[in-house]
Write a structure and sequence with these properties.
With 407 residues, this protein is mostly beta strands. The protein contains 5 helices and 22 strands. A hairpin with a 4-residue loop joins β21 and β22. The chain is elongated, with a radius of gyration of 23 Å.
Length: 407
C-alpha cells in the first residue's frame, strides 16, 4: 500500500492526556516536493470526548522517530498573507514577543486521507508556510489565500505518545523506504534539512487552509505536552549513545535529624530522581524532611554541574491556588504570580523517580513535571502531576552546613 501506516498508532485508539480522553479519528499523509523527491509524514486527527480536536504529527528523521503537537495561537504581532509570503530563510521576525529566525519556507500537500479528516480538509489541499525558531520555541505561520494562522509547535517524546495510547514499547515501528517520484524516501518521513541544518517543522493543514486544527483545544492538555516537549530524554533515540548520568554519592541517612534555617527536621525518606531538561540529563537525591509539626519539605542533592550542590525546597500554599492545567500551560518567560511576587519561568523540566527508601510519597517510575521561576533574588519551584500541584521556595545551602547538621 503506497501510504501504509507504519506508526504504532491506529485509527480508533483512545488515549488520555491530563484527564482528557482523545480518539484517533483520522490519519493524513502530507508531502512536500523538492528536486524531484517527495517527503511525507503523518498527521493524526485527534478528537476529544467534548468535540475539540488537535493534530499530532509523526515523521522519521535521521535522529529517529519524532512526534510533534501543533497548537493554534494568537500572535502578538500578526502578518497578512502577502507579508508572510515575502519572508525568506535567514530573516528575523517577531511573532510571539521575541526575535526568531526563519529557517524554512515551503508548502505542503494532502496526499492521502484515512478515516475522519479535520473539518474542511480535502485531498490535494496545499498550504504555504514558514518556520521560525528561537531557543526551544518554534512558531509556524501558515496561509492559503488571504487567511493566515499561527501555531506553536512542540516536540514530544515517543514514549509520551505511545504511553498515552497504551502501546507497548516493543510495538513501536519506524517508517519503511518507498518509491515516490522516482526517489527512494521514507514513508511518513520528512528528512529534508534547511538553512542552518535545522529540520523543517511542517504545519498541520488548518482552517485557514480549509483543513482545520480546532482552536478549542483545552490549554491544560497542551500544558503537559509543552512541559514534556523536547525535555524527556529517558530512553529517547537522542540519548542512547550518550553517557548515562552519574548518581552523586549519598551523604545523608534516612532517620537522621538535624536543623536547617532554624527548623528542626528528620529525614523520613529518600528518592533517586532523574531530571531531564533540554540538552541535559542528570541524577540527584531528593530527601523528604519532616518537621516537628508533620509538614514535609524537600532537600535536593546534586545538579548537572555537581553532586555537592544542595537546595532546600520549602513547601507553601499560594494565595491563589493553581491547577495542574494552569501551571502546565506556562512556558519559558511567562509570568507567574506566586507568594505575592511576579516571577518569570526560567526552567522547565521533567523528573522520573528511579528508586525510593523510607517513608515518601514518591513512587518509582512515576513522572513529575516541574518548573523554576525567579523574581529578583527569590526562586520558586513547582512540581505537579495530573491531579495536584506543590509550590516551593528554593534556598541554596552550603554543602558543609547540610552535612554537619545531619551528621
Amino acid at each position: 500500500m503506497k501510504y501504509a501506516n507504519t506508526t504504532p498508532l491506529e485509527l480508533g485508539m483512545t488515549g488520555e492526556f491530563l484527564g482528557k480522553r482523545y480518539r484517533i479519528a483520522g490519519r493524513l499523509v502530507m508531502g512536500m516536493d523538492e528536486g524531484g523527491e517527495t517527503y511525507t509524514w503523518n498527521e493524526f486527527h485527534l478528537v476529544a470526548d467534548d468535540g475539540s480536536s488537535t493534530t499530532l504529527v509523526h515523521e522519521v528523521t535521521e535522529n529517529g522517530v519524532e512526534w510533534r503537537m501543533f497548537t493554534l495561537i494568537e500572535p502578538m504581532h500578526s502578518l497578512t498573507a502577502a507579508e508572510a509570503a515575502s519572508r525568506r530563510v535567514g530573516e528575523s521576525i517577531d511573532i510571539s514577543g521575541k526575535s526568531m529566525r526563519i529557517n524554512c519556507v515551503d508548502e505542503s500537500r494532502v496526499l492521502h486521507i484515512e478515516g475522519e479528516a479535520p473539518e474542511g480538509v480535502d485531498l490535494g489541499d496545499v498550504a504555504h508556510y514558514f518556520n521560525a525558531e528561537s531557543g526551544n520555541e518554534m512558531i509556524v505561520v501558515s496561509w492559503t489565500g488571504d487567511e493566515v494562522e499561527f501555531y506553536r509547535g512542540v516536540t514530544l517524546p515517543a514514549q509520551a505518545v505511545t504511553g498515552a495510547f497504551g502501546v507497548p514499547p516493543a510495538s513501536c515501528r519506524v517508517g519503511t523506504p518507498m518509491q515516490t517520484s522516482g526517489a527512494s524516501v521514507f514513508d511518513n518521513a520528512g528528512t529534508r534539512q534547511d538553512a542552518g541544518g535545522t529540520f523543517a517543522l511542517r504545519p498541520p493543514m488548518n482552517s485557514a487552509n480549509r483543513a482545520g486544527i480546532s482552536g478549542k483545544m483545552i490549554a491544560g492538555v497542551v500544558a503537559v505536552l509543552i512541559a514534556v516537549a523536547g525535555l524527556w530524554f529517558f530512553n529517547s533515540s537522542r540519548t542512547k549513545s550518550s553517557t548515562p548520568p552519574k548518581l552523586p554519592k549519598t551523604q545523608l541517612i534516612v532517620g537522621k535529624s538535624g536543623e536547617l534555617l532554624a527548623t528542626r527536621y528528620r529525614i523520613t525518606g529518600r528518592a533517586v530522581v532523574e531530571i531531564a531538561r533540554v540538552g541535559k540529563r542528570f541524577l540527584r537525591h531528593e530527601y523528604v524532611l519532616t518537621d516537628d509539626n508533620g509538614s514535609e519539605d524537600l532537600l535536593v542533592q546534586g545538579s548537572e554541574r555537581s553532586g555537592d550542590e544542595w537546595l532546600l525546597l520549602t513547601s507553601f500554599r499560594t494565595e491563589r491556588p493553581l491547577t495542574s492545567q494552569q501551571v502546565g500551560a506556562l512556558r519559558l518567560g511567562d509570568a507567574l504570580d506566586v507568594d505575592g511576587s511576579s516571577a518569570r519561568v526560567t526552567e522547565m523540566f521533567l523528573s522520573r523517580v528511579q528508586s525510593v527508601e523510607g517513608a515518601t510519597a514518591f513512587v518509582a517510575g512515576t513522572p513529575l513535571y516541574g518548573l523554576l521561576a525567579r523574581s529578583g533574588t527569590k526562586t520558586f519551584a513547582a512540581r505537579w502531576n495530573e491531579t495536584s500541584v506543590t509550590f516551593y521556595r528554593v534556598t541554596p545551602l552550603p554543602a558543609k552546613s547540610v552535612t554537619t547538621s545531619f551528621k
